[in-house]
Amino acid sequence: xxxxxxxxxxxxxxxxxxxxxxxxxxxxxxxxxxxxxxxxxxxxxxxxxxxxxxxxxxxxxxxxxxxxxxxxxxxxxxxxxxxxxxxxxxxxxxxxxxxxxxxxxxxxxxxxxxxxxxxxxxxxxxxxxxxxxxxxxxxxxxxxxxxxxxxxxxxxxxxxxxxxxxxxxxxxxxxxxxxxxxxxxxxxxxxxxxxxxxxxxxxxxxxxxxxxxxxxxxxxxxxxxxxxxxxxxxxxxxxxxxxxxxxxxxxxxxxxxxxxxxxxxxxxxxxxxxxxxxxxxxxxxxxxxxxxxxxxxxxxxxxxxxxxxxxxxxxxxxxx
Length: 320
Description:
- By secondary structure, this protein is mainly beta.
- It has helices at residues 19-22, 59-71, 73-79, 104-111, 141-150, 214-218; strands at 9-17, 33-39, 41-42, 45-46, 85-92, 98-100, 118-125, 130-135, 157-161, 167-170, 176-178, 182-189, 195-198, 240-246, 249-256, 260-263, 271-284, 287-292, 296-299, 305-319.
């Protein structure tokens, strides 16, 4: 199985913009396009191969027929025939809602879903753009509830000014929001479960306030004050720089100025590359494909050697 590319699944969002088209060359048809789902096994939004002899085949069909070859036997053992990672690019023209995600146990109980642990890599940020990540002081459950009633939640939020290359790890239960003017790559568990707790009193195009999930969020939220979200990582050129390692994914940063060959004989997992700058040719023993800024490629677990040829690129490498 050769390196696979997929058609992007574009999502209109109240807070979306046009950067997915302008900067990442996505075929957007709306000026409120907020997300490009690059690699998804989510029901109703399953990715479809866009290159080579398997063009037109869905990700789920590939997994059904060739699970061990594509995913790796250890991944199949853990997750069955469900693709465990959801890969996105996100353009926030406006602030996203303040939200959080449940852990595996709660998500399974309530939604028969995985929880949603995620990470963000900032690709572009306008001047003074920021994120909300966690609280800025210790907060009790009672204080939190009162802040919602008094419309003072923002007073308790921790704002993080961001620039290109900044990386954040968002564990389950952590309150967060992407701020206006941020373009980022997102890596997350396969889950579309979000508890929205504050939406700046915005209305959708029909004039309706969006649904809040105040009560459900109360049982999921982590009230502890933790400074555990900003990821510190090396940016050495022409080397593999570890970024995040958690039970749900491992992510490395590659700033390549020349070619790189990896022996992946002992890697019992698929490998994903997201190109966040430049372009490269990525191949294995069964073929190769070009990946440019804003594109994603999936290499099967059966790959023995990954061959990257480039004159300059920055890649996020994701495995299990």
